[in-house]
Structure formats: C-alpha cells, structure tokens
Design brief:
The complex is a heterodimer of chains A (280) and B (183).
Chain A: E1 2-5, H1 6-22, H2 26-38, H3 42-59, E2 71-79, E3 82-85, H4 89-103, E4 127-133, E5 138-145, H5 147-150, E6 154-158, H6 163-178, E7 186-193, H7 196-206, H8 218-231, E8 247-255, E9 262-269, E10 276-279
Parallel strand pairs in A: 1-3, 2-4, 7-8
Antiparallel strand pairs in A: 2-5, 5-10, 6-9, 7-9
Helix pairs in contact in A: 1-4, 2-3, 6-8
Chain B: E1 3-7, H1 12-16, E2 23-32, H2 35-46, E3 59-61, H3 89-94, E4 99-102, H4 108-117, E5 120-123, H5 129-133, E6 136-143, E7 152-166, H6 173-181
Parallel strand pairs in B: 1-2, 2-3, 3-4, 4-5
Antiparallel strand pairs in B: 2-7, 5-7, 6-7
Classes of the chains: A alpha/beta (280), B alpha/beta (183).
The complex binds iron/sulfur cluster.
Iron/sulfur cluster (SF4) sits between chains A (66, 68, 146-149, 182-183, 270, 272) and B (78, 126-127).
C-alpha cells in the first residue's frame, strides 16, 4: 500500500481551484483562434478577440476568467493500492476548496439549502465523483462549473425506438432553446444510456475530453460531427449576437443501458471551459 | 452598427437614440444587483416602503462580482443571466429605471415594458469578466451587505462595454442576429 497524506491532497486541490480559474487551457484559446478564421460575422470576431483578451488579463493573476468561479466539481480516480493518512479524502478535498477559493479571491457561490438559500461562505461542499481504479496513484481533476451554462442542461428519458435521431433532435432542441444564455461559444457534453443519473454523469465527464478528440466508436463520432455542424448552422453565434461559432465542440459518450430505456443527457458548458488535473 | 457613449443618469432621449446591435461605452455610476437584491427591492415595494436607492435615470447591472484583491475596486465582474430577473424588471422600469445590463434573452413582458417606459436592455460579454473589471473604477455596497456577492452595489465605471439587445421599439438582437446567420 502507498500512503498519501491528506494535507498533500488539500494543497494540490487548492492549487487546482486557483489554476483552473485563472489559466484558460490552450485548447480553448486554439479553438477561439481557428473559429475567428471561419467566422462570417464581424461582431462575432470581435467577441472572440475579447475572450482572448480576457484570458490574457486573467493570466496576470489579478482577476479570475469569470466572476462565476463555479461549483467545484471533482473527478477522482483513487488507486486501490493507495491509503490516505491523516484524514479522509472528502475532508481533504473540501479543505482544499475552502483554501483555494479564499486565497485565490474566487467567488463563493454555494448555498447550503436549495430553498433557504444561505451562502456557505467558502464554496463548499465540493461535488466529488469517486472511482476506484487499479494502481497506486491518485488522480484529481477539477471542473469548476458555472451556473449559467449548467442551468441550460437537461436529462430526458427517451424511448429506445427514438434511436440516434431522437438523441440528436433532443440535443438540438436543448441548444436552440438555450440560445444566448449559456455564454456561447459553448462546449456540449452528451451522455447516452445508463440510468437517469448515469446519463447526466457521463455527459459531464465527456466535457473533460480534449476538444478536438473524436469518440473512438464510429457511430458516436458520426453523431458528434452531425451535431456540431447543425449547431453551428443555428446562427446563435458568440454571445448569441449572431454568427457561425456557437459550439466549440460536441463530445458524446455512451454507457450500457436497460432494454426498456434510452436516457440522454445534455450538459452545456460555456467558453469559460475550465478544467485542470493532477496525479499524486 | 453604431458606437455610442452613454453617461449616467440617462434621459429618455439618450435611450431612444439607441438601436439593436449598437456598441455602447458607459461612464458614470451604475447599480449592481442580482436575484436576492431584486427580491428584497420588490418586497419593499409590496410593503409600500421606500427603496434604498433612487432608480430614476439609472442603469442596473445584473452581476455578482468575485471578491476584490487588495487595491482593486472589484474582482471579476461579468454579467449573470438576466432571465431570472424578468419577473421583477417591469416594476423597476415603471419607477424610472432606464436600462438593464446582463446576458441572455428577456421575456415578452420585459421587452414590452422597455417600449412602454422607454428603456433599453444591454448585454455585456458573458464570461469576459476580467476584461470588464478593468472598466470599473470604484464599487461600494449600498444595501444588503449580508448577501455577499449578491449585495446591492453602486459601481463607478468608465467606458464599460455593452451591446444593445432590446431597444425602445421592441426589437431584439438575439432574434435578428440569429436569423441573419441561420442556415
Ligand atoms: S456561463 Fe460560464 S462564462 Fe457565462 S457567466 Fe457562467 S461561468 Fe461565466
């Protein structure tokens, strides 16, 4: 067994919270650049330039990319040969969030009860998705999720007979209705299959894939391609002001499901597509 | 698409000259408030009590900035989704509010209220929050400090960038901009 100190985890999580909110990943900047070349609307090109400028200012470290520094969502892969010393994994992660959101001047956006709505003051609790994997490593990925884009997401229980077309129509309907609200250009995570909650989880996890990647299964890659093309024909454009660049990527993932079911989930992510990972 | 400079407080004439798609640069003081602050303002109106701020000629910015680092007036300060303020907006417009700044579509009622009371809805670039913060020169909490990021603030801005989405004639850039590029 390999031992990892809880405080090592806390320190790493604190850094992840800060880095994710200040340093936009290169793949997003690259996507802005390539869409600027393809964009037909001058207003849209101007918006994409502003987003590049925003990332540059943020990188100087004074201001986070977006004021909504999100719900701190974590995907954790814990090696079965790892034990954690001096505390529990959830406590260590939550302490890292507490420290990162305070020391990084990040906004505290979590209320303790969805109806009473009192702010917890330190952006905890984090959402932690834990997976036990073989090996002696601990991999922690953060995806701070803003409210504006999360609110435009949806899970729907389709019928197996709806098939690929049903899924495609559902995603197009969702993105069209979302319009300017989720801060386009967006990244669209799609989860197909599993149970009600698994579809949503798979859609969110799909957002971690590289923007340029394709699903290795040809029938799913074909759906990704069709969706991206159709979404970018909608005309919504950056910020919804009109243009070609509505989505930077569509990432589809599937999971086995029940003979009676076809759950589908769309998790919408904004251009402030922040995620960072660390392996301990 | 024209570019216009706006200085608050605004008059009917100021807002009537704006068309959808116009880029505006705002200078002066603007109110900043979102969900909870709106609910409290409406509760006061319902109770027949005075508001903590005068809305005449004002612009309200739907935002909840991130905490300021020492030496900065605010942290990042981009817009939040305006639709959540739709149920409250017409009553504030009736009291002389001249405009709202946010992101995302407004309801038919809000667009109608903009026509009736001569007001505009502007969008700031959602997620360009670090860039927008550069135009904020000063910020102070004027009410409800206990709401944290949701407190009601007054912000001094200089050349704060926004785009006209709904003008005083019922036009909507989100509808027209999209139609233009739809295939
Ligand atoms: S949707 Fe994203 S970019 Fe827009 S305000 Fe929310 S976190 Fe920021």
């Amino acid at each position: 067994m390999r031992e990892i100190e809880a405080k090592t985890i806390t320190g790493a999580v604190k850094k992840l919270c800060i880095d994710a909110n200040y340093y936009l990943n290169d793949e997003v900047l690259e996507a802005f650049r390539s869409y600027k070349e393809k964009e037909e609307s001058p207003v849209a090109v101007d918006i994409l330039s502003q987003l590049e400028e925003n990332a540059r200012i943020s990188q100087e470290g004074q201001f986070p990319l977006c004021q909504d520094t999100g719900f701190a969502v974590f995907f954790v892969e814990l090696g079965s040969e790892v034990t954690i010393k001096g505390g529990t994994l959830p406590d260590a992660i939550n302490e890292g969030v507490r420290q990162g959101y305070s020391e990084g001047y990040l906004r505290k956006s979590i209320v303790s009860d969805p109806l009473e709505r009192k702010n917890t003051g330190d952006n905890t609790p984090a959402i932690i998705h834990l997976e036990i994997v073989p090996g002696d490593k601990l991999k922690i990925t953060i995806l701070p999720k803003g409210g504006g884009s999360e609110n435009m997401s949806e899970v729907r229980m389709l019928k197996p007979a709806d098939g690929a077309k049903g899924v495609i129509d559902f995603v197009l309907e969702r993105v069209s209705k979302a319009g300017p609200n989720p801060c386009p250009p967006i990244v669209v995570g799609v989860g197909i299959g599993g149970t009600f909650e698994t579809a949503a989880f798979v859609a969110k996890k799909a957002l971690l894939r590289p923007l340029k990647s394709k699903n290795p299964k040809p029938h799913l890659a074909a759906i990704e391609e069709e969706l991206l093309e159709k979404i970018n024909q909608m005309g919504i454009g950056p910020q919804g002001f009109g243009g070609r660049c509505t989505a930077l990527a569509v990432l589809v993932e599937a999971f086995p499901c029940h003979i009676a079911s076809l759950p589908a989930a769309v998790n919408i992510e904004c251009h402030s597509h922040r995620h960072k990972e660390v392996v301990l | 698409m024209a570019e216009a400079k706006l200085t608050t407080p605004l008059t009917d004439k100021d807002v009537e000259s704006l068309n959808i798609g116009d880029k505006v640069l705002i200078t002066g003081s603007i109110l900043v408030g979102r969900d909870s602050a709106h609910k409290r303002l409406i509760d006061l109106l319902d109770a027949g009590k005075p508001l903590p701020v005068d809305l005449k000629g004002q612009l309200i910015y739907y935002a909840g900035p991130s905490p300021a680092r020492p030496g900065n007036p605010v942290g990042s300060a981009g817009p939040t989704t305006s639709g959540r303020m739709d149920p409250y907006a017409p009553r504030l417009l009736a009291l002389g509010l001249k405009g709202m700044i946010g992101k995302g579509s407004r309801s038919a009622e809000v667009i109608e209220a903009c026509k009736k009371h001569k007001a505009v809805y502007l969008a700031a670039v959602g997620g360009a929050a670090a860039l927008i913060a550069k135009s904020v020169k000063n910020a102070e909490v004027v009410a409800y400090p206990e709401l944290g990021p949701e407190a009601l603030r007054l912000m001094e801005v200089e050349d704060f960038p926004a785009v006209v989405i709904n003008d005083t004639r019922g036009n909507d850039l989100y509808v027209e901009g999209r139609a233009k590029y739809q295939k």
